[in-house]
Amino acid sequence: MITLAAALRETTGTGTSGLDRIDAEFLLAHVLAKPRAWLYAHADDLLAPEQLAAFRALLKRREGGEPVAYLTGQRGFWSLDLQVTADTLIPRPETERLVELALAFVHPGRPAAVLDLGTGSGAVALAIASERPLSQVTAIDISPAALAVAAANGRRLHLGNVIFEHGDWFSSLGSRRFDIIVSNPPYIADGDTHLGQGDLRFEPRSALAAGADGLDDIRIIVGDAPRHLLPGAWLLLEHGWNQGASVRGLLEAGGFTEIMTEPDLEGRDRVTLGRMV
């Protein structure tokens, strides 16, 4: 048997695999069912043979490129610990900017109807619901498998103010209208080389790519949103760093006002929003 510290050393630093130390720590913590911080206080603890074998098996898959979030089945987002699978996108820190902006338009002391389009793991919908318990959040996705993950996250987090519905954007909503619509839709161009790199290789392509310029789904959302927004309501869209001007143009053509693009923490265009007259 070897210690936790030795197991980490053989795969990072002095090892030959070249794996990122943080990735290895997340995987070892997952095998041990402990928080990552626990590893530092127990570096000299011994690993049982079956624990070491499970750790090495995960490391091998990570060396093959599989995302850590899929290997552990978990990813932190906002203040939530979410379950994720290969049927959902992996929630990313930059999408927290979408949540932050949405919360600015949802008063904590009043009920509001919120719609999250393309909810995936439920990250955005559940983050808003957790911060605004008086609101009713409707989360839509075209993928039944993704919806199952999102609904399971909602149950595990005991958030009863979210409902999950199967639909292709607005198709299931009838005449319902909302105080705010948010979406992190597919926005990568079909031919973008990044789709064949890194974690994106393993994520559902239908949740990533949207036509020759990446804006096909955003066009649909902007075109149909006015029928589902209450007067004075807001539409917020996450998009790529170089798409801000294009999305502003779509919102202007769609009759929205007070249009603006907000950056993420790295100063890149990330969310464009507009208000319905």
Structural class per helix/strand content? alpha/beta
Query: What form results from the Cα inertia axes?
Result: elongated
CATH superfamily of the largest domain: Vaccinia Virus protein VP39
Radius of gyration, in angstroms, nearest whole number:
21 Å
Topology as a string of helices (H) and strands (E): HHHHHEEHEHEHEEHEHEE
- Helical proportion, percent range: 25-40%
Number of strands: 9
List the helices and strands and how they pair.
Elements: H1 4-9, H2 21-32, H3 38-41, H4 49-63, H5 68-72, E1 74-77, E2 80-83, H6 96-104, E3 113-117, H7 123-131, E4 136-141, H8 144-156, E5 162-166, E6 178-183, H9 216-224, E7 229-238, H10 244-253, E8 256-263, E9 269-276
Parallel strand pairs: 3-4, 3-6, 4-5, 6-7
Antiparallel strand pairs: 1-2, 7-9, 8-9
Helix pairs in contact: 2-4, 6-7
What does this entry look like structurally?
By secondary structure, the chain is α/β, with parallel strands linked by helices. The protein has two domains: 4-64, no CATH class; 73-276, 3-Layer(aba) Sandwich (Rossmann fold), CATH 3.40.50. The protein is 33% helix and 20% strand. It has a seven-stranded mixed β-sheet, sandwiched between helices. A two-stranded antiparallel ribbon has the order 1-2. Helix 6 (96-104) packs parallel to helix 7 (123-131). The mean pLDDT is 94.
Would you kindly provide a brief summary of this structure?
The chain has 277 residues and is α/β, with parallel strands linked by helices. Helix content is 33%, strand content 20%. The longest helix has 15 residues, at 49-63.
